[in-house]
């Protein structure tokens, strides 16, 4: 539900448009009535926003149902293209995923949240809500913890001050001191582990992508079910591959 209702041209109108777009994304399309009911808006308000968005190409109508338009692909590609790392990392992550047989991700940080700019899937991988463009909590993911651990101390402290250490599962780090201890361990190991901290039954291994002077540019991860990521494979074999892939991406990003 938007924070404020449309009052004819204020920021509230923008919030309403984005609330409608978010609803369309989450429900793979919706009717005017369904949107109005879900967001506690009048049908006329919803219709006016959809008509404007449709004229701009951001919404399309099929029968009585509205869907996101392909115009968003142009915006999404432009946003991702700001990160040269995407083109550098894509092939390396694909190779890593092919060798391990689990899903792989590339994450950058924006406004205190992790954003997946690339995802490589396998046929047997576990389907979650993660996809390109998904924002994730830095404290509850392997990629997020890998990224935090290698930030300069002042920037890391700033982000930790801003983070809402909300629990995603019973295993999520919600205590600041425990999280900081975990980040120190990540720094020593060169990899981060996610032990069912975002989804029950799912774990992951992440590593930072470092640029010149060990500046952290991004982080990558491999994730899979706890039934397959176990023992030496989880604690030794996969971490070694993830670390090496992150190192190669960092080198290519620096010198390509």
TrEMBL record:
Domain named HTH iclR-type: residues: 11-70
Pfam families referenced in this protein's UniProt entry, alphabetically: HTH_IclR, IclR_C
InterPro entries registered for this protein in UniProt: ArsR-like_HTH, GAF-like_dom_sf, HTH_ArsR_DNA-bd_dom, HTH_MetabolicPath_Reg, Tscrpt_reg_IclR_C, Tscrpt_reg_IclR_N, WH-like_DNA-bd_sf, WH_DNA-bd_sf
Record carries keyword Hydrolase: no
Any one GO molecular function term: DNA binding
Keywords assigned by UniProt, alphabetized: DNA-binding, Transcription, Transcription regulation
The IclR-ED domain, residue ranges: 71-255
SUPFAM superfamilies: GAF domain-like, Winged helix' DNA-binding domain
Gene Ontology biological process terms in this record: negative regulation of DNA-templated transcription
Protein name: IclR family transcriptional regulator
The organism of origin for this protein: Halobellus salinus
